[in-house]
Amino acid sequence: MSSPLKRYSYNQKRYYEPLYEANHSYCDTAVKPVKKKFVKNKKAKRKNIVVTFFALLILGAWCYYICPYVYENYFCPLYLNRIFNRHLNLDVSSYVYPTRNYLKNSYLLDKSLLVPKADKSKEISDIQVVSELTETKNKLITLFQKYPKLMPSVFVWEYSTGAGFEINSDEVYPSASIIKVPIAFELMRLIENSKNTDHPIELTDKRAFSEEFRTLGSGNLQYTKAGNIYSLDYLANIMIADSDNSATNMLLYEIGGIDGFNRAMRNLGLKVTSLHEWLPDLDGENKITAREISKILYNIDNPNYIDVKYKNILKEYLGNTKNSHLLKEKLPKDVMVLHKTGDIASMLGDAGIIYTDNGKKYIITVLVKRPKNDWAAKTLIQEASLLIYNDIKSLI
Q: Which domain holds residue 307?
């Protein structure tokens, strides 16, 4: 009988040889664990040193040569200078698209767009006053003396005789919503001029209402949901009929924004009519004169600028104006008045074309500067309109 198995305690961290079994029993004598020795490979160590040396060499060369070049030529001009000069508004589009300077551009949110070249617009025709309605003018001057706090500006011209008169008609006034007449005029011209281009515009074209156009003041479009689709015809109609400010901003965007509008007015020969603020312009920054608004109304019938189709549509818009409490208030109910009103704290006005019941037709613009919301201006415009209507109706 063999001797009993000797037992050893083994440290698990040490390497040991396995114990073998023989005949389902332990060997008589257990093998003591043997610790393995790791032999260091000097060749591999030398290789690692060489690799590390070359890596450090490449890294040093990168830092010494490449990094300064990248910093000076890319990081500085593209990022660092942007941070230091973030208050500057750099327009690089002229460098990216150099040919745009040689083309007649359209504008979108005050950004110029490359469009087919177009001929410069001719100046619109001026109104020639053949004779002065002196008696009517003197009556008005007497009427204005009853309102010493108000500063009126008037332009009147009758079609069949060429007679008319003006009072302070070249004085610069806040435009209020009367500026929507030249906006509508320019929209019709844009549609007419786009006929022969690759992308003609039609009044039936649809546009989406978005938050950037939502604004306060008159009109109900401001209460509608963003994303709703409206035709240009609908927007133009409510711009005039309801004096809708949100619709006006959409159409102003369509004709090239503030810059596009002002450029168009200069091309037409209008020196004062201009936009400086999107609607609503409660502080009166947008400007007009009684003469220039009358000039636009006169050229609605000019076939060199607006086709007969669009002329009639524009007149229909003006005939739909819902505010009838100024020029139209005291006139006979069956009189046709194509007009647009304007009302802000510092100015009240109305401009339009009036057809008398005996066949006369005349242009009238009355603008009144006033103390804040002084409603005496409303009475003045009503009385002046009735006086002028009766005198023109009696012309031979």
A: 131-393
